[in-house]
Design a protein that fits this description.
- This protein is of the alpha+beta class.
- The protein is 38% helix and 21% strand.
- The longest helix has 24 residues, at 356-379.
- It starts with a strand and ends with a helix.
Length: 647
């Protein structure tokens, strides 16, 4: 058969990344070997799992292992495995091309990366550890054959922006990666990557816990005998790693560095974990769990189809990489391993969905993670602040989906508020600061803190010193509809229903004054309700406005326009009812509108007044970050009105 060789160009993002690698931006070059071994371990896991699922797959799984072969003479380092392997298409898709879902994000991150540490984090975030080989190699060759296939594929690149892919006939099952190492730096105290002791050191440091044997042939020299015999050289194959599962050990048996390296292996990450959670359960359901809270969010955390991070083992045998039944979706950032004692190895996702044991394990893991976060919140506020910054928006999804743990989630949640420009507050902290006689926890939802602080809805609250939570994550629009109260204090939107901020001492006087104002403005209110009937259900005087002329209010049980837009974006059809237009009777515009209404006697005057009503409604929409129902008409009315005021 004629070999088919093709040359390809890397994506622009991949070329940028290669350039960073080749010019040694990264501080820890040793980690390239960890990445290769981790990938090889994954390939062995996948082959073993596929052999269980597909009984027709003709593969030998009796001696799955990883080999490391250094060659000081040719300055090469080879890492091979007899795992699942790759097809030609998979080689191009997985190595030559970055995941399409992350290219835009990667491009942005690459632009923002100003130093070695920031750049280094990108490798783990985007799952592109293979590229780290170019930190130490001038050329990289990959030879791979997919299990069950006859043809193999060779991939070669010097990191110059191109790579070649060749179809070959003769290759063992699995993947072999050969690094043509850069010239040795004699002043490098870290040692050379072809030396036995250096490889031993790196495997022990980064990959000792790998479940598969990592082997290397080593030479052993027997000194010459005193009678003049020749020096004797033997070659023996040694296993470099202990293969001891960290989750089967006690916390006092494992060092912090070992936990960090294990986390980086299973998460394919470069950050250190924020917290390590070790669990052992005995009784009806026996299992061990080793979980990690990352210190940095993955780039795809909010993407559709983002993977959960918990791996399922049964009696130390790998079963599933991303077991979504072990952790609720709102804890999808948690990484780790669960090793169950009593479960079928040949288990599918469909079976897991019905498995009572998995449901019980999931419940316990969830409670353990949440209690750990609560302890962190109380005892390590700096780490908690990091966690909330990275994962707070995801955790709040649980307020909607996990009613059993809703109270715990409310207590570990933090929110911006008008109390402080820089510090977040808990709901418990808010309740402690509530004014005497205050019955509600007030909140506002919107796109940004600055927008909310300028919102007309907050005017009376700020004027009278009532603290308001400022909720700006998209999920906030949803969960506030699922949470009715906290510690007996109802949650109340500043943009919904009616508000009464008067103290008992002021209530009687203010009620009397409002009754007089309602009589005074009754004609205008009725006319506006009729004129704006297509837009609003009611027009009334406001108790929440102090500076703005008008604002729009949603009924307590109504759907906000922002929430409706979110539903529509997800393909759901949601009808938004008409809202309430509230007027500020103390504003000059409203006073002038009342006088103009009283004086309007002819059709021209009434037409001008109707246009003013449309402009008033449109400005109320703009003030809350929305747009008028008919932007073109609004712009024409505004331009016409401005043209008359300038003459």
């Amino acid at each position: 058969m004629t070999a088919r060789v093709e040359q390809f160009e890397f994506q622009a993002e991949a070329r940028h990344l290669l350039d960073l690698m080749i010019h040694s931006v990264y501080s820890n070059k040793d980690s390239f070997l960890r990445e290769l071994i981790s990938n090889a371990s994954d390939a062995l896991d996948k082959l073993r799992l596929e052999s269980l699922r597909n009984k027709d797959l003709d593969v030998d799984t009796s001696d799955l292992h990883i080999e490391i072969e250094p060659d000081a003479h040719s300055r090469t380092l080879t890492v091979r495995d007899n795992g699942i392997g790759m097809t030609r298409k998979e080689v191009v898709d997985l190595i030559g091309t970055l995941a399409k879902s992350g290219t835009a994000e990667l491009r942005q991150k690459l632009r923002e990366a100003k130093d070695a540490v920031a750049s280094e984090e990108l490798i783990g975030q985007f799952g592109i550890g293979f590229y780290s080989t170019f930190m130490v190699a001038d050329k990289v060759e990959l030879l791979t054959r997919k299990a069950g296939e006859t043809e193999a594929t060779r991939w070669v690149s010097s990191g110059d922006g191109t790579y070649t892919v060749e179809t070959v006939d003769d290759a063992p099952q699995g993947t072999e990666i050969t690094l043509h190492l850069k010239p040795e730096d004699k002043e490098d105290e870290l040692g050379d990557y072809t030396s036995e002791w250096k490889i031993r050191e790196l495997v022990k440091k980064y990959s000792d816990f790998i479940a598969w044997p990592i082997r290397m042939e080593v030479e052993r020299r027997t000194p010459a005998a005193e009678d003049g015999g020749d020096e004797h050289i033997t070659v023996e194959t040694q296993t470099l790693n202990s293969m001891k599962a960290l989750w089967a050990k006690g916390r006092d048996e494992v060092s912090d560095d070992e936990y960090k390296e294990f986390y980086k292996h299973i998460a394919h990450a470069w950050d250190d974990p924020l917290e390590v959670i070790s669990m052992t359960a005995e009784g009806a359901f026996e299992y061990r769990a080793l979980l990690f809270i990352p210190s940095q969010a993955p780039f795809d955390m909010f993407m559709r189809g983002a993977k959960t991070g918990v791996q399922l083992y049964v009696k130390r045998v790998f079963v599933m990489a991303d077991c979504d039944q072990l952790m609720p979706t709102y804890l999808r950032f948690i990484k780790g391993v669960v090793d169950a004692e009593d479960m079928s190895l040949n288990v599918s996702r469909e079976i897991l969905q019905q498995d009572r044991q998995l449901t019980a394990i999931r419940r316990r893991l969830t409670k353990k993670v949440l209690s750990t976060i609560r302890t962190m919140q109380a005892e390590r506020p700096h780490d908690y602040a990091t966690l909330w910054t990275q994962f707070g928006a995801v955790l709040k999804e649980g307020l909607i989906t996990d009613l059993d743990n809703q109270d715990t989630l409310l207590r570990i949640s933090s929110f911006a508020s008008t109390h402080s420009d820089t510090e977040l507050t808990t709901l418990a902290g808010y309740v402690e600061r509530m004014k005497e006689g205050q019955q509600h926890i007030f909140y506002a939802t919107g796109q940004s803190r600055d927008q909310l602080l300028r919102s007309p809805h907050l005017e009376a609250f700020k004027a009278k010193g009532f603290e308001v939570l400022l909720l700006t994550d998209p999920v906030d629009e949803v969960w506030v509809g699922s949470v009715s109260e906290f510690d007996g204090k109802p949650l109340q939107s500043v943009a919904k229903g009616e508000v009464d901020l008067d103290s008992e001492d002021d209530k009687a006087a203010h009620d009397a004054a409002r009754q007089e104002q309602e009589k005074e403005f009754a004609g205008l209110l009725d006319w506006l309700k009729e004129t704006l009937a297509d837009h609003v259900k009611e027009v009334r005087l406001s108790t929440r406005l102090t500076e703005s002329p008008a604002c729009l209010i949603t009924d307590n049980l109504g759907i906000t326009p922002a929430l409706a837009r979110m539903y529509r974006a997800s393909g759901q059809t949601v009808a938004v009812g008409k809202r309430i237009l509230e007027l500020n009777p103390g504003h000059q515009l409203i006073t002038n509108l009342k006088l103009a209404h009283q004086r309007s006697e002819d059709d021209a005057a009434r037409q001008r007044l109707a246009e003013a009503a449309e402009l008033l409604y449109g400005t109320a929409l703009l003030a809350e970050g929305d747009v008028p129902d008919d932007p073109v008409k609004f712009a024409e009315l505004l331009a016409d009105r401005l043209s008359h005021t300038l003459v």
